Amino acid sequence: MILTENSIKSFATPEEEAEKVQVEEGTPVEPAIVEQPHSEGTASDEKVKEPLITESAGQEEESDAFVTDQSGHKKTLQNIGKVTLLESWFDAKSGSEIRKLELTIGSESKIVWHFLFPRWADYSTPKGGDRDALLELIKLSASKSGPDNPSMIHCGAGVGRTRVFIALDYLLQELESGQLLQLADPETDPVFETVNLMREQRMFMVYNEMQFKFIY
């Protein structure tokens, strides 16, 4: 799973491959952009403006690399600008590879945080200690994002691992704020309602039964 804070929706992909997740009106939750991974041919497509990227396992086979692990490495995006790797390290607590990048477009620069969670295979769920690591990643990602710098999140297709991450992020925020304890109808299943709302926006959100149960 890849999470990018102060994200680059311009590593991004064409408009149809990226979308903003909607929640019920009035819900106090940070915005997020979900998408499919970019390829070498789409790495320069417009919009790299927000500050956070979160990514799930094994993207090397499916997408063009964001940047190498060599500090100071610069990558030029055609017609866009330049991305420079400032720092990179592995955070054991969140099980994530973390990169601090600087995106420069013309005379403007901003910091982009890139998180790669490599221990989550496609169509599956994290196991054992990786579950705790994922929760730590969700907290870490939330600490870097906000209304003006939404997270950009993707896995392979942007419907399985990505949506599990978003559902957990949203539901944990609801739990911490006490909203899950104030349901108007006690028969309401907040997990089902959250996943169903995402599926109304795009088919196959939370791809299979295993991932659905994992959210519970």
From TrEMBL:
Domain called Tyrosine-protein phosphatase: residue spans: 98-216
Pfam families: Y_phosphatase
Sequence ranges assigned to domain Tyrosine specific protein phosphatases in this UniProt record: 132-213
Gene Ontology molecular-function annotations: protein tyrosine phosphatase activity
Region (Disordered): 1-70
PROSITE patterns, A to Z: TYR_PHOSPHATASE_2 (PS50056), TYR_PHOSPHATASE_PTP (PS50055)
Record's compositionally biased regions (Polar residues): 1-10
Family: Belongs to the protein-tyrosine phosphatase family. Non-receptor class subfamily.
PANTHER family the UniProt entry points to: RECEPTOR-TYPE TYROSINE-PROTEIN PHOSPHATASE (PTHR19134), TYROSINE-PROTEIN PHOSPHATASE 1 (PTHR19134:SF449)
Protein name, per record: Tyrosine specific protein phosphatases domain-containing protein
Organism: Penicillium cosmopolitanum
